[in-house]
Model the fold of this input.
Amino acid sequence: MNLRMLGVAAVTAALLTGLVPATAQADPSPSLPVVSTPADPATPPITPASEPPATSTSEPPATSTSTPPATTPSTPTSTPTAPPRTAAAVPLSISLDQPATSWEDRPMTFTGKVSNGAVGWYISLWQALPSGWTLRSSTKTTTGGAYRMTYTPTTPIHTTFRAVVGPKFYEAPAISPARIGTAQDRKIVLNAPSPSYITLTGVAAYGHTTPAEPGLEVVLQDLLGNGTWRWLTSTKVDANGYFHLPIPDNFPHTRTVRVVSRGVAATAVEVSASARFVIKAALNPKVFTVAASMVPKTYRSGCPVGPSSLRLLILNYWGFDGLVHKGELILRDAAVQKMITVWTASFNAHFPIRRMQRVDVFGGNDITSMAADNTSAFNCRQVTGDPYSLSPHSYGFAIDINTVENPYLAANNVWYPSNGLSYRNRSAVRPGMLFSSSTTTRSLVGQGYFWGANWSKPDYQHFEPK
Done:
């Protein structure tokens, strides 16, 4: 009886065990896609030179995957139906537009956008250097995931840039394609000077700016012995970027000069290479024909010599101030070469001349010209103090030199000019006075001229051919 009951119970238990599995298998939920950083075959991995400081800016949310509890599945009695597949997530990406070529010390602009259109995401700009990727700028995305940031290079560059999502280059959720950023050399070019220049020939420093920068003020400086740079003059660059800056050339000198931009930010100041200008003193004579319009007060019809027989001699002379000045003499054509010889010797001896202008500047008036201490030659007129005699100056050969320092006694026994009376005392030697030993006197006598100081009424300023 008991055995029969036990057998029935065992059979019943076995049947129940075959109908219900010991454990039900869980169906795991699909995880969110993990965004990976795209590999860059063109850029080898480099240790970053610097990383930006931590910021409170929110980074794009990181995706996570939940792990279901482990279970031991049992062998099903029939093939189960496969669960539906989840659509693949689109990888996050960031673009970087090609930046326009710029100049050093000028901002370069970088633009692009993130693919998901997120607003307020932190974007950083990195430059590839030999030492590693270096942070150059950062910003946040705006509408549609767009961003814009600038970087101002301090030197010319032609290097790779990338934009990344987040504050770190490595482990960034997305890195842009590489773009080449170019900043050209912004500079002032000073043209190479000639080996040397002659005084009063319009010596100037020429050059240009790159880029043109019309209206930019540039300053010419010269180097002093104590190592400091002195401001000489300034000008503004023309529409094509060219400039010319006059260099003081009224004294023989060797100057080291440079050109510097002015009126710009300190970081944008450009300085040219230095150049050496050698200025030498010389007579530098120039001869020109004479028209009647050049001698309106010193020539008139009936004069013994007409304008066609005269010449204008332009030459340099040493002034009483120790500087070189430019003078002019109206001479007879046959006297020009002799005067060049005389004034070359006088110039080399540094004999000082107060003024050397055409008498026409003084209205043709000899007394006014003498009072101005003017050295001159041609003037068709009567002898001062003797209205009945024609002056030797009417022929263009005679010359008067430093008329105040070398006065003369006229035929009417009056000394001219009145402001030269103190120079009647020839024993008190002063600059500009003529003596028989003076280089100018000896040179004129050597060219066949007679000195008026030897007349009974001395004329210390006057020389004429024998």
Notes: The first strand starts at residue 102 and ends at 103. The mean pLDDT is 85. Residues 187-280 form a domain with the Immunoglobulin-like fold (CATH 2.60.40.10).
